[in-house]
Structures are given as structure tokens and as C-alpha cells.
Amino acid sequence: MKKILAMVMAVAMVMALSVTAFAATYEVELSLDNLGYYGATESTNVSAVDGGLNSSEEALSVLLPVEVAYGDTVTVTIKGSSDGGFRVWLLNGANTDSAIWLSSDQGFSGGDFEYTIELTMNDNDGHGDSVANALMFKGISYGTNLDNFTITSVTLVTDGEAVATTDDANEAEETAEASEGTTEAAEETTTSTNADTGVVLAVLPMAVAAAAVVASKRR
Fold first, then answer.
1. What are the backbone angles phi and psi of residue 25, rounded to the nearest 5°?
2. Among 161, 14, 190, 12, which residue's Cα sits nearest to residue 74?
3. What proportions of the chain, in percent to the nearest 5, are helix, strand and coil?
4. How far apart are CA 119 and CA 79, in angstroms?
């Protein structure tokens, strides 16, 4: 009986050590106030539509709510519609910071879409970027425009590790401190539930192990 209890205790302790960080999920703001950049200019000829953004021009990019550090992978779920194929990648300024995802690889040529893709920040253009801060949508091949492309939802999931919140470059200096405080509070709210859950799952197997020790001593 003591051997069985010892085995239970060992398994419980291994489970406690194997509890990992939970992923953090972010909704990307799809508005004209949150457009990313291509080169030195904002995405042009982008219009707001019900629940999202639409463009039939060269590019449409949106700023991310977090910065993706070099080497980190994020899972992105995109929803919308398009009359033609399109490409997606991580961006910083005009620099491509990840491999380019092609809708044509999924057999998509037009219609409604919903895809979940993984993008890894790897400074693809080799400009020394340490973080990516935007998501780029462009026509299916170089030199082509988006074709009545509408994006209605972009969800970003990190791997649960620490991620820096993207600063608003246009934030007025006099409100910077207040904005930073709000951002920190939002991050705390986003991660607190995951953290609490992780603690509970970590403590539970430890409690089982402690109970096993007590039981073994009584016998």
C-alpha cells in the first residue's frame, strides 16, 4: 500500500511541475484609427464597413495590440470576405517580419473566409527588427491589389509568455502616463484569470501528494 501511495505522490508532483503558462488572447481593433503603415504612409483607400474594414487597393494593414518579439510565434484567426486571393504577414513599418501566408495555398479564390494561421517573427527582410507590431494584407501576388477585401475579425493568441504592449506613437505627451496606467490595468485584467487558473492547477496535485504522505504515515 505504501508503494502505491508513493507512486501517486510522485505522479502528482510531476503534474505540478508540468503546469505551464496559459495563452493570452487579444482582439485586434479594426477601425480607421488603428491602421498600420506601409512604407512611410498609412494604408490608403481603406473604408470602414459594418464590423470591419474594406479595401480594393494595394494594401491594408492594422496595428496589433501587442508587439511580437523576434522568434515568437502568434496564432492569428482572421475572418472576412474577398472577391480574390490575398496574402498575410507580420509587419514593422515597411519591413516584412514573417513568412508570407497565401490564401491560394488553401484553395481559396473568393468568398467568405475564416482561417487560423501561425506566424513567427523572424525579421524576414533582414532589417534588424526586434519586434513586429502590425499585420499586413495584400493582393495574392506582387503587383496585384486586394479585390473587395473585407476583414471583420482578427484574433491574436500569444504563447503565454511576457509580451510588450504596443505604445501609441501618436499619444499626446501630457496623457502618456495615464495611458500607460490604463494599459497596465488592461494587461493585468487579461492575464489575471489565466494566472489564477494556473495557480489552482499547480496547487491541486501538490495537495494530492500531501494527502498521500499523510495517509502513508497513518498506515
1. -110, 135
2. 161
3. 30, 35, 35
4. 16
> Could you identify the residue written with the cell 508540468?
18
Q: Is the pTM of this model over 0.85?
A: no
Q: Which of 51, 87, 92, 52 is nearest to 68 (CA)?
A: 92
Alpha-carbon gap, residue 100 to 62, rounded angstroms: 16
CA distances from 71 to 54, 120, 132 (A): 31, 6, 10
Q: Give dist(CA 104, CA 101) in Å, integer.
A: 9
Q: Which amino acid is at 147?
A: D
pLDDT at 45: 86
**77 with 101: CB under 8 angstroms?**
no
pLDDT in tens, 29-76: 999 999 998 776 777 789 999 989 999 999 999 999 999 999 999 999
Other beta carbons within 10 angstroms of residue 43's beta carbon come to: 21
Q: How far apart are CA 9 and CA 161, in angstroms?
A: 29
C-alpha cell at 192: 489575471
Cβ(210)–Cβ(6) below 8 Å? no
Q: What is the pLDDT of residues 85-137, one digit of tens each?
A: 999 999 999 899 999 999 999 999 999 999 999 999 999 999 999 999 999 99
